[in-house]
Structures are given as C-alpha cells and as structure tokens.
Specification:
Elements: E1 2-8, E2 11-17, E3 23-27, H1 33-40, H2 45-51, H3 56-69, E4 75-78, H4 80-86, H5 91-96, E5 99-102, H6 110-114, H7 117-120, E6 125-129, H8 137-140, E7 150-154, E8 183-185, H9 194-201, E9 206-209, H10 211-217, E10 226-231, E11 235-236, H11 242-250, E12 254-259, E13 262-263, H12 268-272, E14 280-285, E15 302-305, H13 308-317, E16 327-330, H14 335-344, E17 350-353, E18 363-364, E19 367-368, H15 370-378, E20 386-390, H16 392-402, E21 410-414
Parallel strand pairs: 4-5, 5-6, 6-7, 7-8, 8-9, 9-10, 10-12, 11-13, 12-14, 14-15, 15-16, 16-17, 17-20, 20-21
Antiparallel strand pairs: 1-2, 2-3, 18-19
Helix pairs in contact: 14-15
Length: about 425
Amino acid sequence: MNVECEQQGSVSQVTITGPSNDTSQLSLATLFVDCLEELFVWLSCADLFALRRKCKRLKTTVDYYIKVNYPKIGKAKINDQRFQRLHQMDGDSIGLIKDISFKTETILDASQLAKIKEILGKVQRIILDRSHITAEFYDCFLKHCSNLRGLYIGDKGGAAANANVVIGTDNSWLLREYPSLESIQMYGAIEVPELKTFFCLNPNMRFQTDVKFLETNRHLLSDAQVDQLLMCYVIVDIGSIIDLFGELYRHGFYKRLSIYALFRLHVQNDINQLALIPALHTLWFFDHDKGRILPSMPHLKYVVIGLVDESEVFESCAKNNVGNIERLRMLEGSIVKIASFLRHFPKLKHIDVFRFVNRETYFDGDVIDLQALNKERKKLENACKVTLYVQEDIYLATKWATMKTAFDSIELKRSIETQH
C-alpha cells in the first residue's frame, strides 16, 4: 500500500493506493482519531504544527495528541515584546502552553497580570524571578493558576520592599493550600517563617532550593515535611553540607534527596562522604577523576552525566551501584558506552541522551541499530526493559529506515516524550 499526501484547498488529502490500480482519496479531516494518531507517530513536531493549521478539526486533534504524548512541548519564554502579544492568542494555542518562563525586564503590575489571567489558568509550570512581581502575589497571580503544578521563583534582582519577601508584597500567599501544586522552588539567603505553614498545608511537595536557603531556614523546617528535596546550582565542598542533610533527614523533613549541585570530587575520602548523605536518590556526576570509585548508595536511582568524558569513566566509578541505578540522563552520550551500560545495569529502565557524540558501531548515519542494542541488553540476566530517549531526528530516521522502534528489551522514543 502506498500513501501520498497533497494539499487540496485548505485540507490535506491522503491518496491510498491498494493492490489494484483503483485509487481513492480520503481527507485527513475525515479519518477517525485513532487512525490519525497512528499517522502522527511518523511525523516530526514541525509537521504536526504545520498540520494543525489546515483546519479546525485537525487543529483540535493535533493539539490533544501533542498534550498527551509530548509533555516537553509547550514551553514559552516570555520577554517584554512577547508579553504584549500573549493575551492576544487564540484559545486553542493557549491550550498548548504548559510552561511559562518570564524573561521580562519590566515589573509586572496588577493591570498587566489581569491581561493574562486566562493563560495563567491553563499553564502547569511557571518560572519567574523575585523582581518580576511587586503586586499582591495571590490575588493578582496565583488565584488564577488553577492547574499549576510547579512554581519556580528565582533570586535575580531580589524584592525591593522587603528582603525577606519571597515575591510580591508579602508572604501571605504561603499560608494557603494549593491542591494541584506538586513542586516549588525558592533560592537565596532569605528567612521565610511562613514556609513551615506552607509545607504543613501542602505536604509531599518537591522542594527545589540551594544551600544558602536551607541553612538560613533550617530551624523552621524541623516540623515540616516534603517528599523530595532538590539541591541545585551550587558548587560546594561536600563535607560542609553532610551535617545539614543529616539533621533535616532525622527530623523527617525530606524522604528523597536529589543533588544537581556540582561537586569537585577529586579526593577519594571526599567521595566516600557521599555515602553519609541520607536517602540520596539523584546525583549529578560531574568533574570526577578517573580511578575514583563512588561508594555504595542503596537509594541512588538516577544519575545525570555531564560531558562525554564523564560517561567514559562513570561505569567503573559506579561499580558499587550497578544494582540499583534505574535512570541515566546524559548531556553528551557515546553509543558504545550506552551499549556497555545495557550489559551491566540490570535495573536500568531509562536512558535520556541530549546529544550523541562519537557515533560509532551502532549508528548508520542518523539510524540507530536498535536490534543490535536489544541483543546487548539480552546478554544481562533478569534485566529490565530500557527506554532510550533521543533527539527527534534520530528517532524519525530510525523509525523510517527500520519501521520498528520497540523490541523485547529496548524501545526508542523521542526526548520530548519523557516527563523528566
């Protein structure tokens, strides 16, 4: 069967040629949704966005497909110029926006925020700095964010009126319950007494912060509780924060710890101290000397690997943890090294590669030899099936060339399909 697409009028047409010489034309807009979704799998995101412009029904169908299948699509960076156009968007386009990152130089007042309240009601994740809003934060902003799952407040600029105000005119917004909110971020050496009440009203939160904020507020957090504590964007001596994490964990403040901070781990004695950090779940593997060995960390499930040089030494460094690591994220990945991970990490379920370098044995152009990688995974007894997330061009090249992206022990997906 041959399928050809052409443009006729305002609707794309599909010509389907069967075994005989008879040819029939079907409008894409008349196909069942299930049929359309089978076709969408073969298209790039650029193709999907072009398709949604053809007619209203296709726009609705494509939008729903994108929202369900591609959680990373829908991130909008809003500068001053784009903010002026934001409230002029149509309802369908607004529905595609999941994340908004405010990059404006202008302070957003109550009248400006009123223009985008409909959009705020749709988004799931918002990133902004303390300096962006000086109006009352709940009434002018959060009240409209009925679907908000993540709120990330940066420290750039600080608050003008009060150094200990997180954002807005005061911290009264922290004294409320937010049923949909799952994650919140705060930074800086500011003391926030309201934080204790916030975590009591909103338990099981993912809290993202830095060492300065934790040290300033450690006396307020002994009776609070979060599900996951994420530490980010700091370069510190590991020994200086062992006691801090130990104290917070003993008081029951966090259940899992994720460290995206950058540690200089050149001395084996310093590296061994990682084992003293309670419930360490995620670690950014960075600037690690060859020959150094990570200690056994039974709670460690997720490792982020930086440059390709780090991936080359990671396997030997992680030999004490091969039995518990479930997810790897690689900023730069070597396909040969990934094959080695498949042979040695039995509980590994996800590998997310931002960019491939040194495309060697298992590549033919942009096409991955997924069948060969499947054989490598099968060599390891009782190994979990692995999902390999790659850039879209690699995924589509492999799918079109081989017609298959899922095997018994490995499956290929686009990076935009991952939730992380």
